[in-house]
Amino acid sequence: MTPTPPAPRNLFLINKLPFLETFLNGRIWFIQIACLGLLIQSTALAEYKIGDIGAVALSVNTSIEANSNIDLNSDETDDIIARFQPMALFRANEGYLSIDAAAGFQSKRYNDHDENDADDIRSHITILMPDENHGEIYSLQFDAGYNQYTRSDANQGRVTETDNLTLATKGRYDLTNRTNLRGTIDSFNSDAQTKGDADVETLTIPLSVYFKYDEAISVGAGYRYRTSETSGGFAKDIESNDHALYLGFENLLSELLRYEVLVGYQLRNFTNSSDLDDENGAYLKAGITWAMTEMSDLELTAGNDYSTTTTSQSDETLYTQLKWSHRFDERRSFQCGVRYEDITYNQADVKDRQDEEWSCFLRGAYILIPRRLSLNASLEYADRDSDVAYYQYTQTTARLGCQFLF
After folding, report:
1. CA gap 356, 344 in Å, rounded
2. Which of 97, 145, 160, 280 could make a disulfide contact with 129, Cβ separation 3.0–4.6 Å?
3. In Å, what is the CA distance from 351 to each residue of 145, 259, 275, 344, 348?
């Protein structure tokens, strides 16, 4: 099928709105998929308890999305995407630990570009011990997940496929009633399924000590070690060791303001490639939440960190985001926000690349049946600038969906 020629690049959201007409123009069968999902959900049963062990349930998410740029590149190819995601859920909080697990799949169908159709596995488990704090001086959390992703990748300007395995253990031990030791072992393996892409393996180990000065502030110091390597792609493989030293600040300034800030210095050392120079710079991870009213929150997040891509690129990303969340009542909620990213890509034998992106979003949800059925909608816009013309683009996405738990 011959693809539709892309529309001229335009920076203004309003000029993208005619694209949304495709929801009702020759796309009826996509709407039928979502309606069928909703019809299936209407036959829902209650959550099933398994004695004193826990409970099982089934959730179903369906959505239709109009996307003006499915590949995230300057060609700006549009399409309509339907998603159907059933998940089996298990929850247990009896005894000394709690378990929250889910397993299922996401079926994704494109109206025009069916080469991107996918049926991807979704799974996750979290185990927390102890379940509730009854004076214990330690806590442990284990997270694991195996997930397949078929999604747009702005680093490459195309749809890519990966199989990801995540294993993480997070612990906390109280040395005194004011001092605690914290540590994490986080392993991430990404197995590339797109021709030419590389597998990525990352191991991250942060360790820190925190002192609770008072209710308003806890102060800590920490060190983070991370090793990353790529293999099997067309580009030259890279290996790196990251070191970060940081100070941490967290807790409540008041009942209305909560914060968590990590700030320090980081170094990335490349161990196998003389084509890439070692990197160093600021390390930042921050989140501040202001409870404006009982119904509204304003959240500011920011960060600066290194990462490794499936094209054997080392990138440094600086980002900041401002998000406002509001609940009109027990059933209706709304979010809006704006985000900025500045990304520098380094790759062996390739000129460095600099990208800059502004994006904004509007999201709403309505609960039809409490703890059972909800509807959601979103409208998002992104404008990305790059010193490589192919990676310059704008994107508008509009999504309608529903979620059911039974």
Report:
1. 9
2. 97
3. 35, 39, 11, 11, 8
Pairwise CA distance, residues 314 & 152, whole Å: 19
Read off the pLDDT of residues 312-352 as tens digits, 9 standing for 90 and up.
999 999 999 999 999 999 999 999 999 999 999 988 777 88
Q: Is the pTM of this model over 0.90?
A: no
Q: Where are the beta strands (DSSP E) in 215-295?
A: 217-231, 239-254, 257-270, 279-291
How many helices (H) and strands (E) the chain has is answered by: 1, 19
Q: What digits encode the pLDDT tens for the residues 107-125? A: 999 999 999 999 999 999 9
Sign of CA dihedral 316, 354, 288, 102: negative
User: Cis link prior to 18 (omega < 30° from 0)?
Assistant: no
Residue 279 scores a pLDDT above 70: yes
The closest alpha carbon to 199, from 350, 315, 311, belongs to: 311
Residue bearing tokens 């090793």:
227
SS3 for 45?
Answer: coil
Mean pLDDT, all residues of the chain: 87
